[in-house]
Amino acid sequence: MEGKNYTVVTEFILMAVTRNPYLRAMLFIAFLLLYLFTLLGNICIITVVLMNRNLHTPMYIFLSNLSFFDIVYSSTTVPKMMAGLVMEVSKIHVKNCIIQIHFFHFFGCTEALLLTTMSYDRYVAICNPLRYNTIMSKSVCLQLISSCWIVSFAYSLTHTILTSMLPFCKLNQVSHFFCDIKPLLNLACADTSLNETLVILITGFIAVSTFCLIFLSYALIGAHLMKIRSFQERRKAFSTCTSHLTVVLLYYGPLTTRFLRPATTDSLEQDRQTAVLYTIITPVLNPIIYALRNQEVKMAVKSKIWGLKVVQN
């Protein structure tokens, strides 16, 4: 572009979820209610874990961290998505767009690593119950959580730096409800092959490796449970994993192929469709799943709300 006149983009225009005025009003109300429920449900879990000493174990420490990241992960994108439904034109400054990309990938990656850590916790609890307190001590638990934060920050910072180095000119309409890497690559006035390769390699490696580690943990758990003769004991042991397994399937379902597709028009359209699922629906379902499938959480919530005494089995 040397020697040519071009306009440097300072603001991006974000796409609205729909252009239909009636649907925009309906979706705004729906997104607002779901977002508020996300905040309420996850804050409730964090509060219950903090206030109930019986839940001060690695499993629930990980759960409270997961609830925290559900809140911030959803808060990174949903408010801007709702703003796009009520404003004629939803604009965002280039710097703020880059910041949104950073935190979106930081929180998303941390959640994936936390789910992997929680699967390891379930493996130790079921397959090595006598050594559980030794292996999953508080210091080890904090080290695992810290590692999730550090790895995720490094991963997100890599994408943030490379994206911020791209020049943007002329085109400024982002083909998404919020700022993400792929839509921005289509607007860059430079070669983005390196960025696209890193999105596929780094993000793909983290997604596939964490999913494989979770699968390995549950494969070992399944093999161990098959050795237990009592059906009731097998059922009781596996029941502690069902909540986590359900959340894993909800999380990895839409994300498995999301970053492994090239940034074509069709893939971006699919990304917009799945974005609603993993930014709004999944964070809402997580506290519901853990509250309904986990007896200790249900009893702890009841004890705080109605003053019932939690009975330990």
UniProtKB/TrEMBL annotation:
Q: Record the organism.
A: Hymenochirus boettgeri
Ranges where the G-protein coupled receptors family 1 profile domain occurs = 41-290
Where does the UniProt annotation locate this protein?
Cell membrane
Signal peptide range in chain numbering: none
Q: What is the name attached to this protein's record?
A: Olfactory receptor
Which family, according to the similarity comment?
Belongs to the G-protein coupled receptor 1 family.
Q: Which UniProt keywords apply?
A: Cell membrane, G-protein coupled receptor, Membrane, Olfaction, Receptor, Sensory transduction, Transducer, Transmembrane, Transmembrane helix
Chief localisation class:
membrane
Gene Ontology molecular function terms on file: G protein-coupled receptor activity; olfactory receptor activity
Matches recorded under PROSITE patterns = G_PROTEIN_RECEP_F1_1, G_PROTEIN_RECEP_F1_2
